[in-house]
Write a structure and sequence with these properties.
The chain has 291 residues and is mostly helical. The protein has eleven helices and two strands; from the N terminus they run ααααββααααααα. The chain has one domain (2-219). It has helices spanning 2-31, 38-53, 62-85, 93-115, 140-162, 164-174, 176-181, 186-211, 221-232, 237-257, 266-277; strands at residues 130-133, 136-139.
Length: 291
């Protein structure tokens, strides 16, 4: 029974990792850029939701606070692309990586200056509610995290597979120049992608803040999420979720059956094994670029 509770808790954490990883994959699929500030955008989204929803702040109802946080972070994501990333259009990947790493530090500083460094928890309607399945007692917040993550992943997968905009985003990723000649507004696609990644980061932040405490250092979860994206296959939406679930499950079981100190390094050990035996990830989508 303890193992089942560990598994559900690990799945809930893995869903948060998976949602952050989805942000990595969304941007990479459409722009071939890697946003190392994605975890910090998740952290900022969590604080925005807390600021809008908790009684000591704006005091909006939970669902309105969630919608407000997602909207604000979507606009924020588009603004980041317009002001910081667009001037680097056509530059090397290293420039984007350095910029997003530095931007993550800035976001952590801003969050600490506004909300402080003490951990905060978002008020939510399922806090403290437990659901019993026989002798196993599960938190309603953990179940909600898993369900919401599966729904979001399915919607995003359908968006990229079935909508003209999603297909245009993938076309821009494969060959920006050819996409431009075919009439696809590449720069606008980039902005919309960052908007979608910002909204996804906010959703991850809300789920993270609803099931546990958040502080500015929570943005460093982006490192684990990046590992999850690589494990699943950088460029695969289902792979991002799968990688997040693997990371989320490996941590508690490594702590239980090996030693507590191994919980933090176990995901990276899995990452190394995947890179050795399947370098493109478990759900790799390896395609040659058209020149």
């Amino acid at each position: 029974m303890d193992d089942l509770q560990l598994m559900v808790g690990g799945l809930a954490n893995g869903c948060v990792y998976g949602l952050i990883a989805l942000g990595f994959v969304l941007i990479y699929k459409a722009t071939e850029q890697v946003n190392f500030a994605q975890g910090d955008m998740m952290m900022l989204g969590a604080f925005v939701a807390i600021g809008l929803g908790n009684d000591s702040h704006a005091g909006l109802p939970f669902w309105l606070a969630c919608v407000g946080a997602v909207t604000i972070m979507a606009v924020f994501g588009m603004a980041v692309e317009r002001t910081l990333l667009r001037p680097l259009f056509g530059q090397s990947q290293i420039a984007v990586v350095i910029l997003t790493i530095a931007f993550g530090f800035v976001l952590r500083f801003i969050a600490g200056a506004i909300w402080g460094h003490d951990p905060l928890v978002m008020d939510n309607p399922v806090a403290g509610i437990h659901v019993a399945f026989g002798q196993v007692v599960l938190g309603a917040d953990e179940i909600a995290v898993i369900v919401v993550t599966l729904l979001l992943t399915g919607l995003l997968f359908l968006f990229f597979a079935r909508t003209k905009l999603g297909i245009a985003m993938q076309a821009a990723s494969q060959n920006q120049l050819a996409a431009y000649y075919m009439g696809i507004p590449v720069k606008r696609i980039h902005g919309l992608t960052w908007m979608l990644a910002g909204a996804t980061a906010a959703a991850a932040g809300i789920l993270f803040a609803a099931k546990g405490s958040v502080d500015p250092s929570a943005g460093l979860l982006g490192i684990k999420a990046f590992a999850a994206a690589v494990i699943g296959g950088f460029g695969s939406l289902p792979g991002a979720l799968l990688g997040g679930l693997i990371v989320g499950l490996v941590e508690p079981f490594a702590a239980r059956y090996i030693a507590a100190g191994y919980a933090q390094i176990a995901p990276y050990a899995v990452l190394i094994l995947v890179l050795i035996f399947r370098p493109h990830g478990l759900f790799a989508q390896v395609r040659g670029k058209k020149l």
